[in-house]
Amino acid sequence: MTNKLRVFLCHSSTDKPIVREIYQRLESETWLDPWLDEENLLPGMDWDMEIEKAVEAADAVIVCVSTNSVSKEGYIQRELKFVLDIALEKPEGTIFIIPLRLDACDLPRRLRSWQYVDYFPETQRERAYQKLLQSLKLRHGQDFSTEIKKDVFTQSAPDVAEIDNSRREKIKVQDDSQKQIYKANKFDVAGLLLLLMYFIIEVFVYLNDSTLFLDYSRLFLLISTGLFFIIRQQIPMSTSFKTTILVYMFLYPIVFYLLQIGSEFSVGWALLTISSVLTCGSLIGTFQAPMKKVAYSSISLGVFLLLVATQLVLQTFGNYDSPIFIIQFVATLITSILIWMDL
């Protein structure tokens, strides 16, 4: 028997009745394996993790959009963003995202690159469903050799099935290596926790006079987190984290350079404190975010943290050289460009 095509149904809870109907029709197709949260999630399962796993494992994603879901904030938007991130890793020409309009809504800008299907009015639903099946069959055929005809969706000879299974497994391995998206493990959480502790101490330093204990703590945390990003070579796929860390990286060399040359820059000091607080907040919500393999931006971020540690050491021994601010700023520019490319 041939492998079934795994289809993920991305939708808003307000559209559940009609999406449930679509799921039931897809499930009746012997060559399809549809995934719907209310059918596949069991009590006690981690909602976010299971949905992310289902999207990563899916061969195709049907994005059901309506007037309600397009204007609704919340989980549907996060789920759609994750789907779009996975789509970027697919080979060019692969049918992966299939937009399905449930009513006469404006298609979200991020979905306009793909041809959509209108599942309305009710009198046209059968025709729309058949067009949807045609796309899914074409997607199913993309995972099989060109010699296999349409009847591949029915019972296949054992030798042909073995060839198909082998080819499908090979493609899956290639796709997995290209995605390079991981669930944050305990090691990642520990590294991000060290970075959070650093920013908490930074806030105390900015609000109060520095102490020997705080200075040594900052130095230890900077070196630890700097090495963490250099060795791990991946960063969280959280826009809030990337934004707040870049704001801090831009402010840090500017503020401390002005202080070094004797300028009173109280506004900059306040902004640096605020950016540290915001970074703390983004880190708290980042611990369970997926991690993406982005070696260059991760290493660049780690180098910046080690440069800050170097600055603290130079200040301690009184051998302070202002050009380090230039190096910090260059590291910030490189990191911001690389992170922007990864967004």
Written description of the protein model:
It is elongated and about 80 Å long. The chain folds into two domains: 5-179, Rossmann fold; 183-342, no CATH class. Helix 8 packs antiparallel against helix 9 (212-232). It has 343 residues and is of the alpha/beta class. Strand 1 (5-10), helix 1 and strand 2 (32-35) form a beta-alpha-beta unit. It contains 13 helices and eight strands. The strands form two sheets. The chain has a five-stranded parallel β-sheet, with helices on both faces.
Classify the secondary structure makeup into a structural class.
alpha/beta
* CATH class group of the largest domain: Alpha Beta
Named at the architecture level, the CATH assignment of the largest domain is: 3-Layer(aba) Sandwich
* Count of structural domains: 2
* Main sheet characteristics: 5 strands, parallel
Low-confidence stretches: 144-164, 170-179
Helix content: 55-70%
Radius of gyration: 25 Å
CATH topology tier name of the largest domain: Rossmann fold
Strand content: 5-15%
Q: Kindly report the name of the CATH homologous superfamily of the largest domain.
A: Toll/interleukin-1 receptor homology (TIR) domain
Write down the secondary-structure element order: EHEHHEHHEEHHEHHEHHEHH
Helix tally? Answer: 13
Average pLDDT rating: 80
Global shape: elongated
Report strand order across the widest sheet. Answer: 2-1-3-4-5
Number of beta strands: 8
